[in-house]
Amino acid sequence: TGATGVAISDTIPANTTFVSATGGGTLAGGVVTWNIGALAPGATKKVCGTVTADVAGTLNFAATARGTIFR
Question: What pTM does this model have?
Answer without folding.
Answer: 0.85
